[in-house]
Each structure stands twice: as C-alpha cells, then as structure tokens.
Amino acid sequence: MARLDTCLPMRFTAPILVLCALVAVQGTAQPAKDKDADYIKRFEKAFPKNTEILSFEDYATPERYDTLYMGPNLDNALTHVNNDQGGIAWGLAYRMISLNRMYGTTRDSKYLEANLKCIRAVIKVRDDKIGKKLWTGKIAPAWGCDKYAKRERAIFAVHTGTIT
After folding, report:
1. Sequence ranges of the domains in the chain
2. Is 99 exposed, middle or buried (0-12, 13-18, 19+ CB in 10 A)?
3. Checking CA distances to 157, which of 112, 134, 135, 147 falls within 20 to 30 Å?
4. Are residues 138 and 157 in contact, defined by beta-carbon separation less than 8 angstroms?
C-alpha cells in the first residue's frame, strides 16, 4: 500500500482534507437547518407566543388551574385513556395528583369529584377489564404497556405504582 505522502505532495494534502471536510459539513448542514426550521414552525403553531405575562400571584391561582385543567380540558384528557405508551403513568397520573393537591389546598370538593372521574376512567381500562394480553399470553389486573419491552406488552412496576 502506498503512503499518502509519496502519492501527493504535502502541500496538496492539507488543502484537500480541508476541502473534503467542508464539503461533508456543507452537505449535511442544510437538511438539519431545514429540520430545525420545520420544528420551530410546528412548535410555534402548537404553542403560540403568549403576549400576556402573568405574575406568579396571578398565574398560581385556583381559577387559572381550573381554566387549564378542569372542565372541557379534563373531559378531553379522558376521551382516549390508555397506558399503551405509558400515557396514564406519565401523564394522567400527575394530573390526578394535582387534583388531590388542589383539594388539599382549597378544600373544594370539585377537585375530588374530578379525580373520581379520572379514577373511574383509569380503572375502566385496566388490562383485565379490556382483555389486553401480556407478552406471556396472560391477562393481568394491571396497566400494561407496549412501549418499553421488545417482547411486546409488559407490566412495569413503576407504571402500576405511579397509577395507583
């Protein structure tokens, strides 16, 4: 095998390597820039700029919580309850915890009533209630998940613990 310094004079080797590196970087930079622009565009559409800047005192109120998490927003969150991708464990369970905290703070029973709606929705979709089988072929009284195990649906203690 021929050595590089015997094939090309050294004065050409460094510029050629720099040119190759620039071509490689320039060839990949544009698609990444387009992806970033597309992501930013989708993000700004989903989360428009908030022109109203609230103080903490105005932001952290029961009224603000109710606007964000009660009524139609809660009803919408309960339309497609399942844990197939960990949605109950990593989403709805935290809302349920927040409802308990809101009751503890305000002593307003509407938060307990809302949490009871959540509890009923969650119990209704437990694997044994809807007939979902685990990778073992068994149906268990838990909330399995298809997302994390290569062997198909499995039960994760962290999900069941977070949900209950």
Report:
1. 18-49, 62-163
2. buried
3. 112
4. no
Cβ proximity of 115 and 99 under 8 Å: yes
- Among 60, 52, 147, smallest CA distance to 101 is for 60
SS3 154: strand
Q: How far apart are CA 69 and CA 74, in angstroms?
A: 6
Give tens-digit pLDDT for 91-144. Answer: 899 999 999 999 999 999 999 999 999 999 999 999 999 999 889 999 989 888
**pLDDT tens by residue, 25-51:** 555 555 667 778 888 888 888 888 877
Integer Cα distance of 92 and 78 in angstroms: 9
Return the H-helix or E-strand segment holding 162. helix 157-163
pTM here? 0.64
Which residue type does 61 have?
Answer: T
CA 27 – CA 100 distance, rounded (Å): 53
**Which candidate, 93, 91, 115, places its Cα nearest to that of 102?**
115
Q: Determine whether 149 is exposed, middle or buried from the number of CB atoms within 10 Å of its CB (0-12, 13-18, 19+).
A: middle
